[in-house]
Predict the structure.
Amino acid sequence: MGIKDTLNPAFAPSSDNMDKKPEQTEEIKQPETPAEVVPTSETVATSLFPELETEKPKEEVMDLSPRPFNGLLEPHHRDGSMVLDASRNLGYLKDLTPYGATFQPLDLRGYQKEKAMLYISLRDAYERLYSHETENHTEHKPQRGYLNTYYDEFVMRYGNLNARQNVKLVMMDAGGRDILSLERAEDGKFVKADIFDRPVSFSQETLVEVESPEEALSASLNLYGGVNLPYMESLCDLPQAEMLEALKGRVFYNPLAEGYEIADRFIAGNVVQKVADVEGRIREHEGHAMLPQAQESLAALRENVPEQIPFEDLDFNFGERWIPTGVYAAYMSRLFDTDVRITYSESLDEYSVNCACKTMKITDEFLVKGYYRHYDGMHLLKHALHNTCPDMMKSIGKDENGNDIKVRDSEGIQLANAKIDEIRNGFSEWLEEQSPQFKERLVTMYNRKFNCFVRPRYDGSHQTFPDLNLKGLASRGIKSVYPSQMDCVWMLKQNGGGICDHEVGTGKTLIMCIAAHEMKRLNLAHKPMIIGLKANVAEIAATYQAAYPNARILYASEKDFSTANRVRFFNNIKNNDYDCVIMSHDQFGKIPQSPELQQRILQAELDTVEENLEVLRQQGKNVSRAMLKGLEKRKHNLEAKLEKVEHAIKSRTDDVVDFKQMGIDHIFIDESHQFKNLTFNTRHDRVAGLGNSEGSQKALNMLFAIRTIQERTGKDLGATFLSGTTISNSLTELYLLFKYLRPKELERQDIRCFDAWAAIFAKKTTDFEFNVTNNVVQKERFRYFIKVPELAAFYNEITDYRTAEDVGVDRPAKNEILHHIPPTPEQEDFIQKLMQFAKTGDATLLGRLPLSETEEKAKMLIATDYARKMALDMRMIDPNYEDHPDNKASHCAKMIAEYYQKYDAQKGTQFVFSDLGTYQPGDGWNVYSEIKRKLTEDYGIPPSEVRFIQECKTDKARKAVIDAMNAGTVRVLFGSTSMLGTGVNAQKRCVAIHHLDTPWRPSDLQQRDGRGVRAGNEIAKHFAGNNVDVIIYAVEKSLDSYKFNLLHCKQTFISQLKSGAMGARTIDEGAMDEKSGMNFSEYMALLSGNTDLLDKAKLEKRIASLEGERKSFNKGKRDSEFKLESKTGELRNNTAFIDAMTEDWNRFLSVVQTDKEGNRLNIIKVDGVDSADEKVIGKRLQEIAKNATTGGLYTQVGELYGFPIKVVSERILKEGLEFTDNRFVVEGNYKYTYNNGHLAMADPLAAARNFLNAMERIPSIIDQYKAKNEVLEMEIPQLQEIAGKVWKKEDELKQLKSELAALDRKIQLELAPAQENTEENRQGNEKKQTEQQPESPHVDFVRSHLIIGRPGLSESKGVKL
């Protein structure tokens, strides 16, 4: 064996524990020796294991100095391997290179040395056996005999390898962990691993018994991951042709890959693009032997192209990047009555606009006059295309330095917004008016780009997973692989990654382990990596080891990532061929990413920011200052990051291994939602709920790693995201998933940034609300999502989505109970204060200092926060409030005690969740302690049975509490979503879950409920009807119920999107989030317990929808009237044609002559021909046809029975040259032709008969017109009926408008400041009112909300206050 072989990475043992070193030695990385070494019997004491000394050591001085290794280096040797040198001295290897290694002697003697020598023989026998069988796929019986002999002798003399007295010695060796896996625990005893009986590195079941081509296909897919025809032929004794015939519809010839593929793989993904590619390939290889098969495949692809979405179902936003700019230009040219030109720059994601000349529409109708500058139609058009609004300012006086005091120009902003909406909304109406051909072209473009994905039903049932050890998994409680897990693994193998969106508790860990191993086995990935939460990685590694006991996995311990060991660990990944590397998210974050790639990505981001800045500066004052500042800050941050990366490149030394050099080519990311905070660029700086566009370093690192893999493969994906909450709050999170996994596909859809994505799939809403100082605050958010089915198809194409029900997990059902609590008198009183605060912004009402300038902007967030605290407990606001028997804590304690007693015999447990008022040791009053006090004092529950997760400061303490919950010694556990919502398997006895507050995100609620609603809940299953009660505590007149319902709606949308079961093409996400609180009018309505304002919002919605319906009806009616008019005209014209032609035909019949047989004679006269001979006449006509030039005028050249014969010369272009074309007609009321007026130039007789033939065609032309008239006579009455219809809901609309007006008056009376109704008071107050407080801000709010705030509603829908 040569030196090169000794370093073949394929032989590197799976995991090393180089950090486990005896304290006395400087760096124990250990050795090994030829396998046939027989231990000697000298018994000398060991300094490492004093407790095992059997006799006094002899004074013998050993030379422990390092020296070159003079023994035989074997492929499995590495730094830290224990070895014997040529003189049979014991030591370990270090500084291993292709040319040799350093031998570091170990001071082991006597009994310990004998044990170590026998261990080395055992290890070498194992390594040689494993290497031989892995390489040659043949069994090596003699070596297996050596392995059994050495193992049996070791166990007989020293006990099991895993016995406590042996583990320390074994772990001194770098490959020790592998050797410990030669034993597995069964029924409390250690037994030999399978490798002692049979090969485990390859599947021995090579000769599969099959009885049909289907079974042969399954065997091929199982072994090779694809269609291997020679292998299948060898199994089923059928010729290829017959086998393929039998598998028709299951396998297809793919001309692009020049091989057969199964339907799951071939008819999948972007089939529209595939059809085009296959068509192109077929055209290029027309004589190819496989042409018939390729055409069959093409037909199958065409059949599976998704059904086109018709124009009526599509909702187009103005400014979608894929729509050609010419379409926008045509619309704007019509709107502005001038030639408008629009261009789009991809790199800037920027539209530019200009026009031929500025019309009155641009300069007057669409003009908004601001204090500092005017915005004409062209400025507003640019904002409309980008879906933004100008940030207008005005001056309200001068400061002490004579500078303008600037505030936002609320009226200007509203007016600009209304006009921008007019432009944007008018686009859809304009599209409706276009020709069917135009609509068809637009629809085709849309469908080719977005409605082109097919997701096959991935059926993985044929897989047997050759190396999987189900016995080992059984010891971890996993009895079999679920069908859902098989399907998901199959999808990941087919696509090379994707998203495993399986609900909590459905076995994602096993999917990761099997998929990683299968990818490695089938050469789909060379070195996969799994990363998971710190709390879960040990579990993942143990599951992998149990599933594949002989796999070489590298599991990163805490110690491996200590600063001293990290570099060595990274080198270890780089230099060894592991089946899988497993580490935590945090550890992954410490892997250096390739500086060159970082530089490229950061530079691209910086270029985009700089281009955006340049564009903004060119626009001068027409720019949001916040946006400019934000971009400048972002530029500064990116420059700092770039500088850091450039410095790293310059000062790099060769010993730093980065991610690219490690050779990782697929990452499985468990709980991938932890990486959703990815950086992105956006203009929508004022839109709520978008998250931080700066992103986190952790997410950026992940992007670098995934891009490294994608660059290497040249394809999308390269990673597998596993999470039960891929979308935790908003559909905008989908964009970031696609940014990670599908950059190429996004580019194909013309989506290069977040704004381009939002322009297609999101609709922005703008609410105007008045703030404390009576200024309008503009609230923007992406509330509506459109084209949702296409968004879902794009997501589902790479996703396997399963709920626990789909998987058939045996878990209890969730029984939700909304427990209503009437407000206490203190809460009633405080609700009034909160409403007053929301109106006036006077924070002193709440017992706090007045709002600062920053807080003023967040007034509704502060109000929302106070309302949440108030609902939980008044002492959250001020500890001086008294306890109350009707507050939430009292109700909750009572419910807990009821469940405690009910399930006392079974020791049923309960979880209590609250993110507010959590327990902090020694930190005053909190809700947790208050409820615990009530439980112990009022209900006699022992304090030791009520615990808080926050008390557990270490993992050990946390585990102890979880075990106590499962054992029933702790019966009630309190915690917050973050601390108790994940990674807690304490479901065994759970009977109830209490939500004291509602979290912000649907995923948080799911995580909370998942503590009890999961497999393994025995008490619920056997004693509670397989139900877990989930109690949501809601104080009336608070935000509790509203928040809960909002979460439910969001969760429904998210679930529908994932399962592809969308009932609608548009969804509404609601208007409340943790960043900005909730909508003012809904807040007021909920707190007042008076739902008038919410009723008003519902009425407005209904009116708007009816008006939209009426508009559509009237448009339809106008279309019908237009059609009726045109069809009536057509009928009139056709009837006139028939009458005139019938007259010509009757006149012809009256003068025509016939021969004896009744044939009509061709009595034709031509000018300049005296003969009646048809041949002579024909020749003359042919001469005229060649030579005549009439200059486009009809010129008479003869007659037939009194009907003039005329010729006309027309100029035509043929192949770039101009020719004269002479055409002949015979004229009556109309001009009649035969052969389109062209004579037969080869046959004079036929030329002479042309005109008689033309006349004889008249009856057939008359029949055609009569047939058209029959159809028209059927259609016209139907159109008359449609055009005569009246809209039936006019009365309903009028009724709703009057209800709205009445409701507005009622609201006005309720919200207006209380004033005495005397004339004097009114006059006295008038001046005071204007001086002190011009008007109640809330009245102003109502006005703005009714009239300005909803530009879609006309004045009549609001009532001027």
